[in-house]
Amino acid sequence: MRVSKSVCRWSLFSACICIFLLVSSQKTIAQTETKPISIEVDLNKEKGELKPIWAWFGYDEPNYTYMKDGKKLLTEISQLSKVPVYVRVHSLLVTGDGVAALKWGSTNAYTEDANGKPVYNWTIVDKIFDTFIERGMKPIAQIGFMPEALSSKPQPYRHFWKPGDNYNDIYTGWAYPPKDYEKFGELVYQWVKHSVEKYGKKEVESWYWELWNEPNIGYWKGTTEEYIKMYDYSADAVKRALPTARIGGPEVTGPNWEDAAIFLKTFLDHVTKGKNYKTGKIGSPLDFITYHAKGAPKLVDGIVRMDMGAQLRDIDKGFEIVASYPTLKKLPIIIGESDPEGCAACSEDLSPQNAYRNGTMYSSYTAASFARKFDLAASRGVNLLGAVTWAFEFEDQAWFRGFRDLATNGVDKPVLNVFRMFGMMQGNRVDVKQNLAYDYLKVRDGSVRGEPDVNALASKSEKSAAVMVWNYHDDNKPATDAPVKVDLKGITASRVFVQHYRIDQKFSNSYEVWKKMGSPKTPTEEQISILEKAGQLQLLTFPEWINVKNGTLEMQFPLPRQAVSFLKISW
Fold first, then answer.
1. What are residue 218's phi and psi, to 5 degrees?
2. Measuring CA to CA, which residue among 474, 467, 378, 329 is closest to residue 53?
3. Is 483 helix (H, G, I), strand (E, B) or coil?
4. Cα 456 from chain centroid?
5. Active-site residue 61, yes or no?
6. What homologous superfamily does CATH list for 36-50+313-332+342-382+395-571?
7. What fold does the segment set 84-286 form as a domain?
8. Residue 13's pLDDT band (cuts 50, 70, 90)
9. Catalytic residue chosen out of the listed positions 148, 214, 341, 512
10. What is the three-class DSSP state of 294?
11. Residue 162 to residue 423: CA distance in whole angstroms
12. Which of 11, 290, 387, 489 has a 20 to 30 A CA-CA distance from 228?
């Protein structure tokens, strides 16, 4: 069949149009995909003091404190902040020989002689607190757990838990109420009195004394009323020894759970209007309020999926409850444990949902979640003082075993570098324009399951500013880099000095370096030296002086998934 020239011309023209439209469509899609995520920071819009709520840490095993890697890590933690770092540990009154083990610690602070007379021994407690104070750190002095001689059900007392064992096996004789509340109160009195004599009144006034840990679950084998009774005896003892000391509680976990919310409300009702078990008067001393908040990671098709929303709902419910008490609303709140999940000593090899801990997912989660804590506190009008990261180090364990820790065998993990970033933020929090994919309410209510959460936290001091930018997602899947454009407005200088730090697969990441070494089980001294350097916070680019136009500094850069950038600007 013959085809006319006009038909051929029309076909060629149509094909050209189709190709043009296809190319134009692909170009539009590419432009859309590469359009920068705009983050606008306005230094003229201050949002109040940026409290160092990140400068709070804690761990189960108090005897790690004065061990080799424990001392090294505490030194590094103390150096990352310009304000004193507070440290919270368990088992400060537990009976034993002071030998460290997972989920265990002891000090032998209290025993009794053959006649039942108390014997106080502060040697190990002092050794722990000395290690903090020598580094300019402050203890959150936890009153707990029950000495064997005072326990109402002492046997069995010592446990030997290890990862993979039933978690409930740890709740032994130390978790029970005292058989004699007067003796327990006297123990607390003698401890505070000794602390004042050893460290001085001014020093001890700067501490926080608290009672117990998570009394709404297995850590407390008594009733709510028995905990409240013990609180009254403890608070009375603390105040008798040092009237200006600060005492608080109740350290419940999961305020978004019904039982925890009931426990917290019952406690707050008692301290405001209940009859004091010790004094017979109405109410009890309360200088700050404590509770815990945890997320809930899981495996989905072999991929770790975090649940930041679960943690934020716990935090927010606690804020809501405190705000409902007019006389308590402005008291300081310490989130005594604030973490992506609940078991620091449950290793990745036996709990694969914890595979986020070694790499950058832990660091990006930390950056994004801490920023939202500020927003939640502001929305409820409460006084958030600190949020304790329950992570430290585990002596003599396999390299990068996947505990929730800040360092492994003396080598810092990526998450510690987020706290180094936080430590460089000073002054007041400033406005970050909230037209991005997520605000604090969206993350609280639904976590981060759709678009990635690319956002920022920013601060301003007299001659500097800081912007922390993260690219976070609950699903730990590979993804393309996010193009980011930061506009920093309100700069009063014509030139600024910019330092750009980064945590990602290539920078500030000892874990990736270790894997490239072949994941050695016993690294050589040379390899350890390389890993130690890789574990420090690193610059992405050379520091540089940049001209400012009309009071605005514009910076563009790609930000990988689960990465954190930190811009330090000074003039």
1. -65, -15
2. 378
3. strand
4. 17
5. no
6. Glycosyl hydrolase domain; family 39 (2.60.40.1500)
7. TIM Barrel (3.20.20)
8. very low
9. 214
10. strand
11. 34
12. 387
Cα(383)–Cα(333) distance, integer angstroms: 6
Q: What is the CA radius of gyration of the chain?
A: 27
Measured N-to-C along each axis, helices 414-423 and 360-380 cross at an angle, to the nearest 10 degrees, of 40
CA distances from 177 to 103, 110, 513, 547 (A): 20, 15, 48, 65
Domain boundaries, the chain: 36-50+313-332+342-382+395-571, 84-286
pLDDT surpassing 80 at residue 25: no
Residue bearing tokens 């080598």: 411
Closest CA to 430 of 488, 372, 365: 488
Residue 257: CA count within 13 A, CB half-sphere: 15
* SS3 assignment, position 247: strand
Average pLDDT value for the chain: 94
Residues 76 and 127 sit within 8 Å (Cβ to Cβ): no
Backbone angles phi, psi at 2, to 5 degrees: -90, 140
For residue 415, what are its two tokens? 């998450």
**Residue 367: which residues within 8 A CB-CB, separation 6 or more?**
418, 421, 457, 468, 470, 472, 564
User: Rounded to an integer, what distance in angstroms lies between the CA atom of residue 419 and that of residue 366?
Assistant: 9
Q: Is the pLDDT of residue 239 over 70?
A: yes
> Are the C-beta atoms of residues 153 and 132 closer than 8 Å to each other?
no
Picking from 362, 360, 356, 397, the residue whose alpha carbon sits closest to that of residue 509 is 360
Q: At what angle do helices 181-199 and 224-241 cross, to 10 degrees?
A: 40
Residue holding tokens 């003229």? Answer: 44
CA distance 390 to 404: 8
CA dihedral in degrees (356, 359, 363, 369; nearest 10)? Answer: -20
Token couple for 28: 């539009």
pLDDT tens digits for 454-478? Answer: 999 999 999 999 999 999 999 999 9
**Which structure tokens are listed for 464?**
């500097």
